[in-house]
Design goal:
With about 240 residues, this protein is α/β, with parallel strands linked by helices. Helices cover about 40% and strands about 20% of the residues. Helix 2 packs antiparallel against helix 4 and helix 6 runs parallel beside helix 7.
């Protein structure tokens, strides 16, 4: 990684406390700014330097901020980059005293890395289907796209599996009582969003009603920001 690539975005920029709308606007500006620079698209695709946190923490957070808070100005979000057991401090100043909660972010994206890698190496990547990788990074690596539109059932089975795996890892860890979990998954715009929402919500509800969870809320957001699902333990109502 070159000295220049390390500074497309800094840790200090990422950790600024912002309102939800400020965060969304800053992220969009930052992506535009980086992609217009030499090597910027590559840095984002391959998650170089703090572009990793930008895409894996700030991007899902910006989707969450858009759906959950909109243009509320009495809430601020402060990303925390490090090894603590949360990624974002949320401060709601509509309460007196202000109410602080925490958000943990994780990804359930499957072979999304291979799609980025193929885009980087070949200049294109399949929208549907999957990519088979042979060899290693240092020897005879070859990416083979398998094109074809999967059915809705296959897509949902894959997402349920990936989300379930991501959730299982987080359920094994200890969190403070005011911590929520945000999982970003890969959307398939070829399918109706209502079908996806209902199936994934039922999966989360059925899984977490039978397992002990310490999370305040569980959020699922899709990349891009088409789908938002919120589940609250011991609460039969839900929002999409």
């Amino acid at each position: 990684m070159s000295h220049r690539q390390k500074h497309f975005v800094t840790k200090e920029e990422l950790m600024v406390e912002r309102t939800p709308q400020e965060l969304v606007e800053w992220f969009e500006r930052k992506i535009q700014e980086i992609t217009q620079q030499e090597g910027g698209k590559s840095a984002i695709r391959m998650r170089e330097g703090y572009c990793k946190q930008l895409m894996e923490e700030i991007y899902p957070l910006s989707i969450f901020a858009f759906w959950q808070f909109g243009d509320k100005s009495d809430v601020t979000l402060q990303p925390v980059i490090g090894s603590q057991n949360y990624d974002v401090l949320i401060i709601d100043r509509a309460s007196v005293p202000p109410y602080e909660s925490k958000l943990e972010i994780t990804l359930a994206l499957g072979d999304e890395y291979l799609k980025r890698l193929m885009l980087q190496e070949k200049g294109w990547s399949p929208i549907s289907g999957y990519i088979e990788k042979t060899g290693t990074k240092n020897k005879d690596r070859h990416l083979t796209p398998h094109l074809g539109v999967r059915g809705l059932e296959d897509y949902l089975d894959k997402q349920i599996n990936l989300i379930g795996q991501a959730l299982a890892v987080k359920l094994q860890k200890e969190y403070e009582t005011n911590t929520s979990l945000l999982i970003m998954f890969e959307d398939a715009i070829a399918f109706d969003e209502t079908d996806i929402k209902e199936t994934l919500y039922c999966f989360i509800k059925n899984k977490l009603e039978t397992e002990q969870t310490q999370f305040l809320h569980l959020y699922l957001v899709s990349s891009p920001k088409r789908i938002f699902i919120k589940w609250t333990p011991n609460n039969t109502s839900h929002s999409h």
